[in-house]
Amino acid sequence: MTTDILADLAAERPDDYTAEEWKLRVELAACYRVFDILGWTELLFNHITLRVPGETPAYLINPFGLNYNEVTARNLIRIGLDGTPLEKTEHHVNRAGFVIHSAIHAARADAHCIAHTHTTDGMAVACKEEGLRYDDFYGAELWGDVAYHDFEGITVHEDEGPRLVRSLSDKHIMILRNHGMLVVGGDVFSTFRWAWTLERACNVQCAAGALPGPDRSLSDEIRAACARDARAFEPKGLLERMLFLGVLRRAAFDPGELLKT
């Protein structure tokens, strides 16, 4: 295989999928593997969802009951906005867990991929009154693009959806207070990049908070400049994919596993 593992796997398309859907399935299955490699898992819980093009709104989601490293391009489930499968599957769908994703997918045309995590450092920051600080290399890159949503309990009630959407507004990152993190992106690669940046910011914040002495703050001017420069980082349009593929290449697994049934 070449260094672009995903391009190679997308070329092995089975006849029962369009080229576009198969490419997206491969990318999302790989995204679950990347999150697993980095330890961003919560047993069988949490989701990364991806919009599938077509006349009827449809999304790909992980089968409930499988670990992230067991998700493949074939066993991903195509579902509607209510979380109901739109194809035959032997697996379950965690419809309750899709409440957050369905509301945002429906409300935001740019919300092609949504990732929700419960990492320890992310949840710790979500539990702090101040929330995320923007006083380190990674936190500053997120300046101006972070929203907050107050905890209402386990997110299983559909009436919370509109409130989630209002809280997110036009931002791409939302800290679910006392709960976890949510990242919205245009594809799996941009979603991964900003989820990684957010996680690193939380890691640094937690580590700095454990040290004695006051934290050193950055000015809003410097924060804004960091956020602007981070989004202009070269090579534009390729950086996110390069980062993503770099994680896959360093993992000890057979890429062909992503194609299994």
UniProtKB/TrEMBL annotation:
Primary enzyme class: lyase
Keyword annotations: Lyase
Domain Class II aldolase/adducin N-terminal as annotated: residue spans: 26-206
Coiled-coil boundaries: none
SMART domains the record matches: Aldolase_II
Entry superkingdom: Bacteria
Listed GO MF terms: actin filament binding; lyase activity
InterPro entries: Aldolase-II_Adducin_sf (IPR051017), Aldolase_II/adducin_N (IPR001303), Aldolase_II/adducin_N_sf (IPR036409)
The protein's name: Decarboxylase NovR
Biological classification of the source: Bacteria, Pseudomonadati, Pseudomonadota, Alphaproteobacteria, Sneathiellales
Underlying gene: novR_4
